[in-house]
Specification:
The chain is built from 13 helices and 12 strands. With about 400 residues, the chain is an alpha/beta fold.
């Protein structure tokens, strides 16, 4: 079966779309309003970096002004990360009252294109207890995308109407999707970063697909075994005994383990960037690498102490007003800190080394902080692709 067709919404710097492409989907349309992100995609598309040379040129603009009806019945997958500021723990938590909430547009695209499946991603904050009703509203809208709000209808009234439709006859009339959602930690799927995001996956009900999220393949237990019990982690990286710094709580946890876990070990910052020259201490060598320059000004303060070298990175952040000082830092074994370079951050987000980010360090870090790790996107999309190919015969 040839590559399946996809539409990528809210594409950002291309992380989700790239992972989906690696899983065998070819984007028919890519939509993103931010000019810096569009420039990043265009530049890499021209250079055929990251394997996106065959992508179409991104549509730069407001999704609310774009019609998708011409793609009805021709799309296998719709994917994207609707702007998450209304739900981020660092935002103002306005949810449905926030004009940046693009979930209604994501539902509209599903309604207009009738894809076989969709994959949407958002921040873990969407699952907060205070957003529980609106989260249910999102799921119901994705389940019954044709049941649109009436003119002037409040979202809570729309929610009640969706519930009545769902309970009346099982919602069997019209376009319907079977939807599941789960909070995933990217570290459990081989990404060198503890990044928790909620992922929504839906299959068109008429396809009769039964699906669940892929099993986790990596664990902290396996990492601790390699660091504390067998020592192979340190030997692999040729780390001297004096530089083997671990959280005492992790050491105590590892010593209670009686057998080696069957999963692979969590990937660490050292695993991800250990072969790159340090941009602070070896700037000439670092300059030979794409987007790998030292950024001065890093400092540690309470609650922002950086990412230890021998653990997965903390969640890379974009920030509401620039990049938070301690979130995107490396903390070395001796306690010193520095900012991650753009290339190091790209490695942590599992972007390929030939992928160039357009704009200043701050702008590039914003793009990376908002991105979906390429590898996590590929893991999910490959599982979705497998199911779609199976029903296609």
């Amino acid at each position: 079966m040839p590559n399946m067709r996809a539409i990528e919404l809210f594409a950002g710097a291309g992380g989700l779309g790239m992972g989906i492409s690696k899983a065998g989907f070819h984007p028919a349309r890519i939509v993103e309003w931010d000019r810096w992100c569009c420039d990043t995609i265009r530049e890499n598309r021209r250079a055929k970096a990251g394997g996106i040379g065959r992508w179409p040129d991104p549509i730069e603009g407001d999704i609310r002004e774009i019609d998708f009806c011409g793609h009805e019945g021709k799309i296998d997958l719709v994917s994207g990360g609707p702007p998450c500021q209304p739900f981020s723990l660092g935002g103002k938590h306005r949810a449905h009252a926030d004009t940046r909430d693009m979930w209604p547009e994501a539902v509209r695209v599903v309604r207009e294109t009738r894809p076989k499946a969709f994959v949407f991603e958002n921040v873990k904050g969407l699952t907060r207890a205070s957003f529980a009703t609106y989260l249910a509203h999102i799921v119901h809208q994705l389940t019954y995308p044709e049941l649109i709000p009436l003119p002037g209808e409040a979202w809570i009234d729309h929610m009640a109407r969706l519930e009545r439709h769902h309970t009346a006859r099982g919602g069997r009339d019209g376009l319907r999707y079977n939807v599941v959602h789960r909070v995933l930690n990217a570290a459990n799927h081989g990404v060198p970063q503890r990044r928790e995001r909620v992922v929504f996956v839906g299959f068109r009900a008429d396809l009769g697909i039964e699906w669940s999220f892929p099993d986790e393949t990596h664990s902290i237990e396996a990492l601790l075994w390699e660091q504390v019990r067998s020592g192979e982690y340190w030997e692999r990286h040729r780390v001297a005994s004096r530089d083997r710094v671990l959280d005492p709580r992790h050491v105590a946890r590892a010593k209670k383990m009686t057998e080696r876990p069957e999963t692979a070990a969590w990937r660490t910052v050292r695993d991800a960037i250990g072969d790159l020259p340090d941009p602070e201490t070896a700037p000439k060598q670092a300059a030979l690498c794409l987007n790998h320059r030292f950024q001065a000004g890093a400092r540690s303060y309470i609650g922002h102490t950086g990412s230890p070298l021998d653990e997965p990175a903390k969640t890379l952040k974009a920030g509401v007003h620039g990049v938070p000082g301690g979130e995107n830092m490396l903390r070395r074994a001796d306690g010193s800190v520095r900012y991650f370079s753009v290339r190091e951050s790209a490695r942590i987000q599992t972007f390929p080394d030939d992928y160039r980010f357009h704009g200043s360090w701050t702008e590039s870090m914003r793009q990376l902080g908002n991105a979906v790790p390429v590898q996590l996107a590929e893991v999910i999309a490959r599982d979705v692709s497998h199911e779609l190919r199976a029903v296609a015969g």
